[in-house]
Amino acid sequence: MERKKRWLAAGIVVGSLCVIAAIFVTIRLYQERKETEAKIAARRHGQSGVSLDFQSDTVTYQGKTYRRNSYMKAILCMGVDREGTMLDTTVHTFGGQADGIFLIAQDTARNNLKILMVPRDTMTEITMTDLSGNELGKEVQHLTLAYAYGDGREKSCELVAEAVSGLLGGLKIDHYVSANINVINILNDKVGGVTVTVPEVTGLTEREPEFVAGQTVTLHGDQAETFVRYRDINEIHSAIYRMERQQEYITQFFATVKRQSDVNSGIVTDLLGEVEDYMVTDMGKEEYLKVAMDALELNRLDDENFCTIPGEAIMSDQYDEFYPNEEELTPLILELFYREIS
Fold first, then answer.
1. What predicted TM-score, i.e. pTM, was given to this entire model?
2. What phi and psi values does residue 246 have, to the nearest 5 degrees?
3. Under 8 Å between Cβ of 339 and 67
4. Considering only Cβ atoms within 10 Å of each terminal Cβ, which end of the chain, N or C, has fewer?
5. Do 53 and 59 meet the contact criterion of CB atoms below 8 Å apart?
6. SS in 3 state form for 101-149?
7. 161-175 as b/e, with b when 16 or more CB fall inside 10 Å?
8. SS3 272
9. Cβ-based neighbours of 188, under 8 Å, separated by 6 or more
């Protein structure tokens, strides 16, 4: 009997400590959230009071009126740090993170496109969920985490699309497509390798001896994934610096496919057929095939086709954080998706 009392007392003590710890964690998380929100508010205050508002098809900016260009489609593309097929859903919070985030501005009238690169560490509101998928509200967090709070498929894509739309002042995202890391090597080897120029990157040569800064290398096998995804986690803002390599790879992959399309008109269909099980999209097959085919109509893909969300990268107490500059972002969105009408 005495032993049971001692166990009961010990259980009460442990339980009480757990409750106290949970309270302190909750308070800390709340304080961190408020600090992050304060940082964002302070940056907005220093941007001449500019606040993005693209929820309407018509907007007014600096005395001019703009209308959403109906020929311009906003297609959200996500690279997810998850392996295996993406045919099945996952438990919420276990679906992987959106490691690469790109918004394609597709001009369907002139078969042209631009790619807006969005830093994964962008601080913005995302929807939080529990393991069952119940929404717990919104919180300012790293954009990359939005995907994880979904089901690893459509819900994850929708949560990232929602967050990116909010980041861009309510801009409507027309479509989304996510693909996991297996796609990189599959597509790379399907076209026989992609030749890239290696930039200066800390630790990259140690990871892959052939990756010498300034040299051209034809990527095969796992080299493609390494080139696209490698970053030194001990180096601040390494995810942002990695975007230079991602742009280089996208550019050279496009050039490789375009050359091969001259002798194989079905190459786009073949490539997409290889990776269907490793991607999730709300577009029908004919729709995303058209996007890819329209892209091949471009003479080339170069620096003029890429832009990055303007902003400031900082290092907080623990993490890399990126804060968009809304004053510079507003005219960029107008340029990409709107046309002046008066």
1. 0.85
2. -65, -40
3. yes
4. N
5. yes
6. EEEEEEECCCCEEEEEEECCCEEEEEEEECCCCCEEEEEEEEHHHHCCC
7. bbbbbbbbbebebbb
8. helix
9. 194, 219, 220, 224, 253
Rounded-to-integer distance, Cα 327 and Cα 310, Å: 9
> Which backbone phi and psi does 77 adopt, to 5 degrees?
-115, 135
* 3-state DSSP assignment of residue 64: strand
C-alpha–C-alpha distance, residues 340 and 65, integer Å = 6
Do residues 226 and 210 touch, judged by C-beta distance below 8 A? no
Judge whether 321 and 236 are in contact, CB under 8 Å: no
In the three-class reduction of DSSP (H, G, I as helix; E, B as strand; rest coil), residue 250 is classed as: helix
CA angle 140, 143, 149 (to 5 degrees): 85
Cβ contact 183:279 at 8 Å: yes
Q: Where are the alpha helices (DSSP H) in 208-310?
A: 223-229, 238-261, 267-275, 285-296
Distance CA 150, CA 97 (A): 10
| DSSP label of 231 | -
Residue in the structure block whose two tokens are 């986690």? 233
CA 312 vs CA 47, 249, 323: distances in Å: 12, 24, 5
Q: Mutual orientation of helices 285-296 and 267-275 as an angle, nearest 10°?
A: 130
d(CA 143, CA 123): 6
Q: Which two tokens stand for residue 60?
A: 């007014």
Count CA within 13 A, CB hemisphere, residue 307: 17
